[in-house]
Amino acid sequence: MVWLWSAIFFFFLVRPRRIVTKHLDHILGRAGFFARQLRIFRFFKEHAWCLIERFEQFRPDFQPKVEREGDAWPDLLADAKGFLIVTAHVGMWEIGQLMPVTDGKRRLHVVREREEHAGTHAVIADLLASHPHARIVTHYLDDDFALGASLLGALRSGDVVCLAADRAKAGMVALPTTCFGHPVQMPVGPVALARAADVLVVPTFVYRVGRRHYRVVAKKPFRVARTADRAADLRAAVDHLAVLVEQAIRRDPFQWKRWEPLW
Questions:
Q1: What residues contact residue 124 under an 8 Å CB cut-off, 6+ apart?
Q2: Nearest residue to 199 (alpha-carbon basis) of 153, 259, 230
Q3: How far is CA 166 from CA 9, 121, 224, 227, in A?
Q4: Each residue's pLDDT expressed in tens, for the chain with a length of 263 residues
Q5: What pTM does this model have?
């Protein structure tokens, strides 16, 4: 069924195919016609599997095989202070963010966009609220005017906050940086929050290796500088994250969840 529906969407979603082609051309270089079609189909198929397992995580008997690479969490979990997981929409990022809190001792605060369909949003919200493997507090970008203060308080109380740093949506405060040799806008929110709370940032990316099999790649934690020049501190942190995000996408560009034009 995954192969079948991937093929159906591959044939009928013309505009997304063009967007994926442009992104992969920037990352992997241009390809001939048939090689390009194989690339696009692989992208669609990887996305389909990630969507399936995204919902399987809510099963009480869900027990994925997880490999860790450069895992910095054990030392962080030994500290009572909170920390910030910064990720990108790569692979199984929604599952990987749960890894530090699956023991139930800490709450995870996740900031999400609302689902496009109200019915789907209601289902996802209920699933997150009753997640069988972690204590999750979900915040939505459009309905919490005190979001920054809420997340700051969560970090200071020892909770874990997870934010994605690869998409600057309309209305977000963003800074220009460079990714894949081209100018992009990246959100300031994650690094500004980490600087205000004076907590470590743990860049973390999760790749789907196989059926319910994931590799969690935790990069070296860093702290946002707190000098007299706040703007320079934030810019340096955003530039650093841009490099890490580019590296994460290059590792497996077929698992990058980007359906909007970037360049």
A1: 115
A2: 153
A3: 25, 22, 17, 25
A4: 999 999 999 999 999 999 999 999 999 999 999 999 999 999 999 999 998 998 898 888 988 888 888 766 656 666 778 899 999 999 988 776 676 666 667 788 888 877 778 888 788 888 888 888 778 888 887 766 788 889 999 999 989 898 888 888 767 789 999 999 889 999 999 999 999 999 999 999 999 999 999 998 989 999 999 999 999 999 999 999 999 999 999 999 999 988 888 87
A5: 0.88
